[in-house]
């Protein structure tokens, strides 16, 4: 992926923290989650929120009697579907999150990859239809909003070189944003992290490297819908993204603990950095 990582730091030398909220957790996040966003902002850390919305999209398609299919965990998005996808992500869900941040006492602006040409994208593959991948992020709009005191809330919808709408995987969008901002990513879900069941109890791995994750997938410890999420986290690791945290957004002060590198969820790092990050 090509991003704007070569751009020099802003004069404000800001520290960003990218938070990706999956669609399955959005309705369950407590008010405290949004208050923690305000605390991060007040402590000089700029949160950038990227969201999904898969369950809401599936629910609407079901009501409209539109069949949904997936390939390798990605929703096939036809020309007939893309307007509905964009309406749900950039309209309903995006503005719900903006309202919740405002109710918590903060200021937020809802945008998508289309706004300001923030995401440059290309179609992933023909079989997926109007699904794209981010090849470049222009971070200037995110910077301007953050400098002005706003929290950017980003819908993972963008467009191709012809201006046609594309549906972007939320985890991939968050990864691209984090790389452009040289920021860590927090993947907020409804699970406590990557875990292994021992005697009926979930034992969470506090820290994992990319090699160990591959082993856990082969063993079957990581399975099902967790596989694409974990692979996405590993793919996000780079010189610009030192670690990715997977955690349950319903835990008390989850975001504050993640930023402070306290014990919560599972922190994923590259093998050569595992001892440095812990």
Structural summary, described in words:
With 278 residues, the chain is an alpha/beta fold. The chain has nine helices and 16 strands. The strands form four sheets. An eight-stranded mixed sheet has the order 5-8-2-1-11-15-16-14, with helices on both faces. A four-stranded mixed sheet has the order 6-7-10-9. Strands 3-4 form a two-stranded antiparallel ribbon. The longest helix has 25 residues, at 79-103. The radius of gyration is 18 Å and the shape is globular. The two termini are 27 Å apart. Mean pLDDT is 88; it is low at 4-11.
Average pLDDT level:
88
State the helix count.
9
Low-confidence region ranges: 4-11
Structural class: alpha/beta
Strand content: 25-35%
Supply Rg: 18 Å
Share of helical residues: 25-40%
Report how far apart the termini are. Answer: 27 Å
Task: Tell me which oligomeric state these chains represent.
Answer: single chain
Shape by Cα distribution: globular
Helix and strand run: EHEHEEHEEEHEEEHEEEEHHEHEH
> Number of DSSP strands?
16
Largest sheet: 8 strands, mixed
Q: What is the spatial order of strands in the main beta sheet? A: 5-8-2-1-11-15-16-14
């Amino acid at each position: 992926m090509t991003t704007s990582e070569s751009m020099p730091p802003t004069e404000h030398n800001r520290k960003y923290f990218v938070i990706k909220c999956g669609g399955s957790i959005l309705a369950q996040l407590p008010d405290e989650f949004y208050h923690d966003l305000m605390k991060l902002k007040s402590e000089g850390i700029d949160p950038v929120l990227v969201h999904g919305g898969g369950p809401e999209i599936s629910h609407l398609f079901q009501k409209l009697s539109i069949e949904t299919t997936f390939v390798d965990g990605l929703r096939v998005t036809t020309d007939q579907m893309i307007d509905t996808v964009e309406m749900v992500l950039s309209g309903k869900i995006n503005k719900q999150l903006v309202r919740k941040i405002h109710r918590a006492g903060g200021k937020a602006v809802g945008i998508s990859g289309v706004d300001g040409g923030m995401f440059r994208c290309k179609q992933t593959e023909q079989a997926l239809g109007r699904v794209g991948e981010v090849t470049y992020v222009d971070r200037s709009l995110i910077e301007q909003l953050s400098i002005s005191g706003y929290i950017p809330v980003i819908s993972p919808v963008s467009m191709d070189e012809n201006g046609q709408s594309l549906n972007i995987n939320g985890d991939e969008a968050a990864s691209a944003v984090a790389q452009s901002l040289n920021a860590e990513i927090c993947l907020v879900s409804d699970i406590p992290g990557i875990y292994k069941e021992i005697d009926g109890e979930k034992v969470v791995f506090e820290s994992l490297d990319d090699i160990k994750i591959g082993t856990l997938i082969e063993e079957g410890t990581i399975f099902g819908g967790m596989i694409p999420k974990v692979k996405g986290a590993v793919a996000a690791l780079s010189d610009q993204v030192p670690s990715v945290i997977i955690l349950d957004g319903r835990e008390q002060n989850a975001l504050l603990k993640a930023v402070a590198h306290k014990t919560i969820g599972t922190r994923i790092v590259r093998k050569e950095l595992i001892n440095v990050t812990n």
